[in-house]
Predict the 3D structure of the following.
Amino acid sequence: MRAFENIVKIEEMKRKMSDGDFETALKIIKTIPLKKIKNSLHLSLMARVYEENGRYEEAMDLLLKVYVKNKTRKVIFQLLTLSIKMHDIQYAERFLIEYESLAPNDFYNYIFRYKIDKIKGEPYEKLIDTLETLKSIEYIEKWAYELAKLYYKADMEEECINECSDIILWFGAGSYVEKAKMLKSYYSGETNKESMIEELKRRAQYSKQNKFEEETGKDIHEIKIDNE
């Protein structure tokens, strides 16, 4: 009887996850005796719920239990992602080696390498080299703009302008294209640094407010802004 109840609760947890309601999904997990759960897929899903709720230690405990039985690419990807979020360099480096051995041609190797090196405080030159390699393999809007920002921080004006131009040309429209236009206009003298920062903050606030209103149907006027 208890096993059936657990199955029902897990299915309900999955539905809440599909709806993006990870808070309720966590409440459901709290009613499940985790020691009774042996299915690796279910444990991985529960780990994701913990992760989405910022409970990284509990997520890591569950994923490591899965890892003991199943050292699959997907599990190692989860462990690597979580290790980076926790700023656990030792685990991140370990799992990156394993992931590279399983998926040597996956462009995510460069994204993981960049994130780890950024946490370690590696110099701009090393970070730039990683993202330039990523660009040569897979051109991704988010990381292209990250590369442009690194050029800016490293005082590489020509490279920054060229990267912004590439982003605008390749992707045409979108939030990162708008940011690239702002950064390029800064170098062309069309705007100053303070105006650029304020505009980026305004865009971030507008984007977050729209998302909040779409999800909740409510209006908000005060939200925190993530620094770019």
Notes: DSSP finds twelve helices and no strands in the chain. Residues 210-228 have pLDDT under 50 and may be disordered. Residues 134-228 form one domain. The first helix runs from residue 2 to 18.
